[in-house]
Amino acid sequence: MMMVFVGLGCFAFLAATTLSIDVGLFMTARTQAQTSADAGALAGAVALFYNDFNDRTSSGPAVRSAINTSQANRVIGGTVSVTSADVTFPKDPSGQPTLVKVDVYRTSARGNPLPTLIGWLFGVRQVDIVATATAQSAPANAETCVKPWTIPDKWIEKSSPPNGQYDLGTDIYIDASDPLNYTGYDPNRDKGTEVILKPNNSDKTFPSMYNEWAIPPSRGAAWYRDNIESCNTYVQPIGDPLTSEPGNKVGPTDQGTQALIDKDPNAYWDMGCNCVKGSAFLSGSPRVAAIPTYDPQYYESGKKNGRNADLKVANWIGVFVESISNGEVTGRITPIKGLLNAAAGPAPPAAFPRVIFLVQ
């Protein structure tokens, strides 16, 4: 009788121990499935912003990136099932299509359930594992590593005949708080556009003509040059007033910009993918510069020269710096990441830089 009881006890102990292994396996699988869904949602949001914000088709970069990334994150050695129908694009609370939702499966309905180790003794031979995640490509309200140049934001030219200069009371400028009517730069529409940033020491507002400004906490030609070459970690909020840096800065501009280019000399703009290639930096080429744009209407309505000029950050643009000559910077407009700063005001819905993060 003792042998019978010991045998039954050992069997029960073995079953309980193995069952705990099954439970641990299920918990691990659930965690790995969530990682797969999280990675897919983030990859989809990144592709949505950096590749094509308007392409949400099954063959588009956002869907394909979400699927490929999810499947690259295996669950207990098996590939999750995720199809184009499992990648959706719900709208955010403001009604904008900035979200990417991904569902991943290891289920019997998809033909890839997770087998049990001991559960079959209790009639459970397999279990279903499902996970979901949502990521957002949200507008930013702050930026860092900005360059000491600022150009006017884009407007609608209404002067007759057109003279290229912003005419107060005639031309139309709508800021980034109105996403449907915003007249400024757009990371999707303007991506790859060549721009030539020209120095502007006058009080006239012309497209792509830049005003030099002093990034805190200092000023002067040497500080200006260093801030072109390197990253100043000053966090710039939307609406930030800009202190002008008057005077001829052609020399420091050429020196700082060339030093910036020399940091990643093999990087180039590829017209095929409309993106930067050849960079030695996995996290992104340092030649991609964040440049604040100023509100042209606000400027034309106030002081227009000297250190007390009325310059106010309306948005930012990303520019891949290609070349420099006599103070003129040639580059390509490209999407850039931004920041969400709790101390800054609300992010304008049409902000050029974006912040990508998980919301669910």
Average pLDDT metric: 90
Instruction: Report helical residue fraction.
Output: 10-25%
Number of structural domains: 2
Assign an overall shape. elongated
Question: Could you tell me the radius of gyration in angstroms?
Answer: 27 Å
Strand runs, count: 17
Major sheet summary line:
6 strands, mixed, barrel
Low-confidence stretches: none
Strand content: 15-25%
Q: Gap between N and C termini, in Å?
A: 57 Å
Q: What's the helix count? A: 5
**Main sheet: which strands, in order across?**
7-9-8-16-15-14
* Helix/strand class: alpha+beta
Structural account:
- There is one protein chain.
- This protein has 360 residues and is of the alpha+beta class.
- It has two domains: 2-138, no CATH class; 142-353, no CATH class.
- It is built from five helices and 17 strands.
- The strands form five sheets. A six-stranded mixed beta barrel has the order 7-9-8-16-15-14.
What descriptors fit this protein?
360 residues; alpha+beta; 2 domains; four-stranded antiparallel sheet
How would you summarize the topology of this molecule?
Blueprint: H1 2-50, H2 61-72, E1 87-88, E2 99-106, E3 114-115, E4 126-127, E5 129-139, E6 142-143, E7 149-152, E8 194-199, E9 209-212, H3 221-229, E10 236-237, E11 241-242, H4 250-262, E12 268-270, E13 275-277, E14 288-294, H5 296-300, E15 311-325, E16 328-334, E17 354-358
Parallel strand pairs: 7-14, 8-9
Antiparallel strand pairs: 1-2, 2-5, 3-4, 5-17, 6-10, 7-9, 8-16, 11-15, 12-13, 14-15, 15-16
Give a nutshell description of this structure.
By secondary structure, the chain is of the alpha+beta class. It has helices at residues 2-50, 61-72, 221-229, 250-262, 296-300; strands at 87-88, 99-106, 114-115, 126-127, 129-139, 142-143, 149-152, 194-199, 209-212, 236-237, 241-242, 268-270, 275-277, 288-294, 311-325, 328-334, 354-358.
